[in-house]
Amino acid sequence: MANITTSEVKFTAGGKEVSGYLARPADVAKAPAVIVIQEWWGLNDHIRDVARRYAGAGFVAAAPDLYDGVVTRDPQEASKLMSQLKHEKALDYLNTVVQHLRAADYVTKLGVTGFCMGGTFALLLPCHTQLEAAVPFYGDVPEDTSIIAKLSCPVLFIGGEKDEWITVEKMNRLSEALKRYGKEGEVKIYKDAPHAFFNDTRPEVYRPQDAQDAWNRALEFFSRHLGKGQAATV
Prior knowledge:
By secondary structure, the chain is of the alpha/beta class. Helix content is 34%, strand content 27%.
C-alpha cells in the first residue's frame, strides 16, 4: 500500500457540517475522490479500513458518519438505526460531502461506493446529484425504478446470488431499468455469495476470492471513469 494520510474531519458546505473520516494518498497534489458509505453498523473500523485501501490505491477516500457518532455490533440496534435514518437526511449529509469535495483543490473527479445500507445510498446519490462513477455493493433497489432515469453516471452494482435481502430478482430489476433508460451500467452477481460477502471482519459471510475480485473490479471501474492522481511537484 502506498503512503497515506488519515484524519477525522468535518465536511462543510453551505453552512452545513458532517463528521467523517478522510484518507488521502501522500505526495499527491490532486486525485479523484471516492465517497465510502457505511453499512448499517455505522462508521466503524471496517469502513475506515476500506477508505484506507482506496487511499492506498491512489484515491481520496471520504467516509461520512451518517449516524452522528453511533456505532454498533448488534444487528437489532443496527436495524433500528437504519430504519430511523431518513433518506432525506442521509442524502442531505451526502450532498454536503459532495459539495465539500467539489470545492477541494486536491480533488479532481468524484465517485461513490457503499455497502449494504451504504450501497442503497451509493445508488440513490448519483440519481440526485452529478457524480462520475458509482459502485454500490448489495444495496437495495427502489421498487419504482423510474428514478434510474435520473442517474448521472456509470454504475457497477455488485451483489451475491444467495443474498436474502438484495435478491437476484431485485438486481435483475436494476439491470432492466439501466437498459430501459439507456444508462451505462453493469450488475455483477457472484455465484453462491451471501449478503455482506466483502466484509472481512465477518467470517460467517466473508468470501475472500469474491471480495478480491469485486475489489479489483471496483478499482478498475473507478480508474477508468475517474482517472488517476497527479503527483505533487517538489
